User: Fold this.
Amino acid sequence: MEILSKGMESVSFSLYRSQALAQSIIIGGEGLPEVPDPSVGLTWWMIVLSVIVVVAVIVLAVFLFTRMLNSRFVREQQLDAENIILVAKQRAQQIETEAMDKALKTINEGEEELQKRRNEVSRESDRVQKRRNELETRVEKIEQRESALSKRQSNLDKRSNEIDKMASKQLDELQRVASMTVEEAKAELMAAVEKDSRNEMARIIRQVEQEARSEGEKKAREIIVTAIQRVASDQVAEVTTSTVNLPGEEMKGRIVGRNGRNIRAFEQAAGVDVIVDDTPEAVMISCFDPVRREIAKRALDRLILDGRIHPANIEKILRDEEKEVQKLIVEAGEEAAFQAGVVGLHPEIIKVLGRLKYRTSFGQNQLAHSVETAKLASVIASELGADVETARKGALLHDIGKAMDHNTEGTHAKIGADFCKRYGTNMKVVNIIEAHHHEVDQDSIEAVVVEAADAISGARPGARREDLEFYIKRLRTLEEIANSYKGVENSFAIQAGREVRIIVTPEEVDDLAATYMARDIAHQIEETMQYPGQIKVTVIRESRAIEYAK
Assistant:
């Protein structure tokens, strides 16, 4: 098309030039040249015609060539269009096939997922229905219970109203008889009490204490260190270890064994710790259970004498010694009952009582302490006219809980009372055991007698021992407790810590306050300190008036 356009432009331009030339020849004028010769004019016409013919031929050729090109281009475009259409149809068919496959796959997956969801919904619906039925049943029960409670509450309200009416009638009757209202009676009573109590308090306290001392009651509460068999402390090392003497230093290596095999087997089987240190010709056995410690000590002595120290022989000798110690425990319990003059004890009680042979408190053997307490209680009960047999039995068994307190939660008094009650012991004796540290009220004079005998046995000189460090610490604690109170000028712990004397400032502390201070300090000592026997608290208040005559 571009070629055709260019050809038409060339032809048009040639014709335009020919016409212009012809007009200039035909039209006369000044600017035209003269024609001198006819042959010249003929030449110009021939040139014009030749040009016209050439132009016509060129135009025709261009037209034909252009038409041929157009026809060929059209045919090629038609072929290309047909090919494109064919490819498009094939692609469309392929896409349609793929789309149908994907659609079918998606439909199948959707149907599977839908079926799965339908199954889940069905199961969930079943669970919901089951839970609904359970809730309905529970609601019915709650409604029934609520109905019963409503009826009961209604009855209670009715009875409460009746009681209120009766109380109101009685109060009105009392007011009528007394000729005063409740408020007036309260005011008069409070005024009388406030008037009399302030001056009588000190006198009443002194009177009560004097009456208690005159009746022979020992004001001695012993707070025993039960942790001495449970936890480690400075005193525990003296009562929770046993020393085994060795014939020579080479025996330590045999006890330990190759790679520690023997000592591990012994500790695991006996339930103790074997301490092998630099102590010459000796090892120590440590355990909070005194019976296990005794069994281990006896077994180790036998192994040293036998010389065959290996795991199999260790287990055999431990079993033999355990049986032997159990026999000794029973024998010790029977011997203690015989010495105390107590008969009719259950065999299990005798067995547990014998375990006290291996229990100590502040260095005092507990089985010997129980027998001594039983003898003292017998003498005191006979002098007071109390039941000697009950007092003797209760005194012998008062500390039986100490044989079990390392394995059972609770105080030894409560543990021992429950144990004896379980084996049919008289309830009066059970109360003596449970009340000897005032954890419960004392129901009989025999309980008071046993408490006094227990204090005498523990507080007598030489009965118990304690090391120097603990002794000094107790004295300092006594003085610190006394000095913590307002108005205390100075304090002194005397008589080996069995008495503390407190000097107060008379301007800050009066007689009544001094009495209160002595009671409060004694109570704090009982609650915070651990000591054998009893501690006397003395508050000294002195007023001096000094004047010089000149």
The longest helix spans residues 38-178. The chain has 16 helices and eight strands.
